[in-house]
Structures are given as C-alpha cells and as structure tokens.
Amino acid sequence: MNVTINGNPDSAEATVSLAAGESFLAESGAMTRMSPSVEIKPRMKGGFLSALGRKLFGGESFVMGEYVARQPGDVSIANTTPGTILHRRLNGESLVLTAGSFLACSPEISISTKTHGFRQLFSGKGAFVLECSGAGDLLMGAFGSVIEKKVSGSFTVDTGHVFAWEPTLDYKIRGMGSLKSTLLSGEGLVMDFSGTGSVWVQTRHLGGLSHWLVPFCKG
User: Fold this and answer.
1) Which of 17, 121, 130, 208 has the greatest number of CB atoms lying within 10 Å of its CB?
2) Mean pLDDT for all residues in the chain
3) Using an 8 Å Cβ cutoff, are 63 and 43 in contact?
4) Domains, the chain, ranges and CATH?
5) Coarse DSSP helix, strand, coil percentages of the chain, rounded to the nearest 5 percent
C-alpha cells in the first residue's frame, strides 16, 4: 500500500496504490475515482456496536467502504471539506482524533470511540473522540492547513482548531478568562495541553465558518 497526496494544503486528494490482494477502509463517500481492478464493499469496522458508536459519538460513517484490489490498482479519496490530508504510519502507537478528522486507514488499524469525560462535552468538538492505534497507515482530513506543534510543557489551543494529538498529552478545557470574557470575547473555550507530545492544529473550523455565513443566509 502506497499513499500519494496532491493538492495540500488547499484541496487535497490522496491516491492509495494497492498491490493485488491489498485493501484499505475509507469514510463513506470519500472515493473520487478508482481503477476497474479494485472493488468496493460495505464494512462495519469492529462490528455493529463499534460502528454505531463511531457514527453517533465520533462523527464518522456507520458503514465504511472497503476497497480490495483483485489486481494492482489505485483509489483516490478526498475529504468533504477543503483542506489538508495527512498520512501517518502508526507503528504500535496511538493517535487521538477529533470528530470528523478520520478519513481512511489500512485494515490493521483499530478505531475505538473514547470519552474524555464531562469536560469534552463543552469542547465544541463533541463529547467523544476517536483513538486510532496499531500498526498500519492512517489518513486524516482537516479543514484548512495543519500545523504540528511539539509540546514540552504546556500549550493552549482553541477547541475548534484542535485536530489531533498524541495520548501522551493530558489536557483540560477552560474559558478565556472570566465568564464575561469567555462569552463576549468571541474566543469561547480553549484546551490547555500539558506534558510531552505533538498536537496537530487546523487553521480553519466549521463552527467559525457557519457563524460567518449566518448574516448572508437571512431571507
């Protein structure tokens, strides 16, 4: 399995080249084109309950597409929002993704829905996150560009811009100062990360875009 990404950071598309017998899983509707030697079939990764949990709580597809190459072939996929696609090879470690960040993976990757407690409910990213682990290829889709920040100590990110992080980091969610400044500053909530590890930050988020569009949608 070989991954080539074109179009970063504005409108990325990833092409997955498969050898005969190889396969990978992708979000429903992600495919843009594929070779005739590749077939697609629906799959609930991890079984019914695991798939249902990802759909209800993780913001991902209930049924993924499994692409299987009968002969060598290519499959191209893209995210639903314009922006960057990241490819990461996991070698036994884990990565935590916010809802909507997962795009595709090789079958060896395990995807589980995790709750980080009551604090995550008010993060602006939902009450649950996805934890991807194992040994294999992982593809993630962001809204806008992605910046990796290596943390050794502490680091603060607006909740809407958090894309992914390493589970070696701890975090807490808080407002920007007092209740008044949190409500009126336009900044809302932030995540304070602490420890050692990497945080991936996306430069745009859908909440900000939808808020900007509201005045233009009034009849």
Assistant:
1) 130
2) 83
3) yes
4) 2-217 (3.60.160.10)
5) 15, 50, 35
